[in-house]
C-alpha cells in the first residue's frame, strides 16, 4: 500500500470475548487507486461503508458502484473484488462478521431473532443509502 494510503484494522481473533462474531473491523483511505483482487471471507458477511469518494465492486460477474454515504455488502463465501481488480480513491470503513445461523449462538440473541436476521440479510439489497447523520456520529 502506498504511503499516501492509510489503513487501520482491528482483528478480533477471539481476543474480545464480548463480540466474537465480529472478526475484523477496518478503515482504508485510498488517495490513489489501489489493487483489490478476487477474495472471499469464508462463512462471513462483509459490510463496507463508503465515507468519501466512490468505489466500484464486482460480485458474481455483476458490477456495483457505490458512493459516499452508501453501504455495500457481500454474503458468505462470495468471491468479490474491486472493479477490474482496483479500488478508486475513496475512504471506507468495513467489517467482517460471522454468518448468523439459526440455532448457533450469535451476539447473545434469541434463536428466533437470529433466524429473522439471517432471513433479512439473505434478501438485503447489495447497496443501501445510509442516513446522512451516520458521518456525524
Automatic annotation (TrEMBL):
Highest taxon of the source?
Bacteria
**Span of domain Cupin type-2:** 36-92
Q: Which InterPro entries match?
A: Cupin_2 (IPR013096), HTH-like (IPR037923), RmlC-like_jellyroll (IPR014710)
UniProt keyword Transit peptide, yes or no: no
Instruction: Could you list this entry's UniProt keywords, alphabetically sorted.
Output: DNA-binding
According to the UniProt entry, its GO molecular function terms are:
DNA binding
Q: What is the lineage of its organism?
A: Bacteria, Bacillati, Bacillota, Bacilli, Bacillales
Family matches, as SUPFAM superfamilies: Regulatory protein AraC (SSF51215)
* Gene3D superfamilies according to UniProt: Jelly Rolls (2.60.120.10)
What's the protein name?
AraC family transcriptional regulator
Amino acid at each position: 500500500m502506498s504511503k499516501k494510503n492509510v489503513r487501520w484494522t482491528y482483528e478480533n481473533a477471539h481476543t474480545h470475548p464480548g463480540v466474537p462474531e465480529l472478526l475484523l473491523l477496518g478503515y482504508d483511505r485510498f488517495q490513489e487507486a489501489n489493487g483489490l483482487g478476487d477474495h472471499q471471507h469464508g462463512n462471513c458477511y462483509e459490510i463496507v461503508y463508503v465515507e468519501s469518494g466512490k468505489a466500484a465492486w464486482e460480485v458474481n460477474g455483476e458490477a456495483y458502484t457505490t458512493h459516499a454515504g452508501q453501504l455495500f455488502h457481500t454474503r458468505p463465501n462470495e468471491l468479490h473484488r474491486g472493479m477490474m481488480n482496483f479500488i478508486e480513491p475513496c475512504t471506507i470503513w468495513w467489517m467482517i462478521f460471522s454468518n448468523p445461523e439459526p440455532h448457533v449462538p450469535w451476539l447473545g440473541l434469541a434463536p428466533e431473532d437470529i433466524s429473522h436476521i439471517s432471513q433479512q440479510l439473505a434478501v438485503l439489497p447489495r447497496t443501501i443509502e445510509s442516513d446522512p447523520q451516520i458521518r456525524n456520529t
